[in-house]
Specification:
This protein has 284 residues and is of the alpha+beta class. It has six helices and nine strands; from the N terminus they run ααββαββαβααββββ. The chain folds into three domains: 42 residues; 107 residues, GMP Synthetase, Chain A, domain 3; 91 residues, NTF2-like, domain 1 (Nuclear Transport Factor 2, Chain: A, Roll), CATH 3.10.450.100. The strands form three sheets. The protein has a four-stranded antiparallel beta sheet with strand order 6-7-8-9, covered by helices on one side. Strands 3-4-5 form a three-stranded mixed beta sheet, covered by helices on one side. Strands 1-2 form a two-stranded antiparallel ribbon. Helix 4 links the parallel strand 4 and strand 5. This is Sporulation and spore germination.
Amino acid sequence: MKVLSFISVFLLYKEFSMKNKIMISILAVVILLTTSCTRSEDDVIRISPFSEEENVYVQLYLPNKSMSCIITELSGVYDLNEAKEIEETLDIMQNRTMESGSFVSMEYLKILNTSVVSDTVFIEYYFDNGNELDEMEECLMLYSIVNTATNYENIDFVKLTNSNGSNYFSKYFNIESPFTPTNTLLYKDYISPIETVEKFLNSVIVKNIPDSAAEAKANNIFYNTGFDIVSYKITKYEYNKYGEYVTVKTNIMLQDSSGNYTNENISFLLELSSGKYKIKEIVE
């Protein structure tokens, strides 16, 4: 068909005037294009950024230990069970953390049950043997769960229950009260609150003049022990949350110049300001 079309055009081309010859040349090009581009629908390769079956997208909050922060990621899935969408999203998030060494792996975290009552997600979980999280890793993992679970409409709180009976998510964060999502870790470096407390205690030992009224009050607390403090050791500490305000509960062993020891339970309320935690209030 294609060959006959060109033969016909060639014969006509010899018999027509120059003007008509130009028209016939255009006709030849059209025949060439139409005959070469006509393909069946099955021959066409369609390229799409997502599989057509992946018609549901969920936002994940992931604990990126390499960047010391939480990052977000959209994940396409085939379908979600509406009654279990939070549970299934958390499962997707867990699996994603095990795909890259940049993330705090949730391999040892086992979620036993997830339920929703009013505006709160209740999550029961436990850690397998082998779980070793430092303070930053625990915080990033905790808030990846909280932020991911509260990303659904009408969900404001997450109440966590450790099935082994512990009041701590792992070691550092007390889970007796519900958590709310935070943006203070979203693409922002983790800042250790206990480092602010340690810095203050070091200033007490060398008797530096504190910069704030709260720290001045803290000086009175420490000096009123009757100790000439020469060293300290924080034997235990815990956080109630991470965000603009954090309460750090501590047990501190103090030593004086005579070698005597005393233990003090002191709570520090910290406020995040200009990328640093500062002592706002201290309670014995």
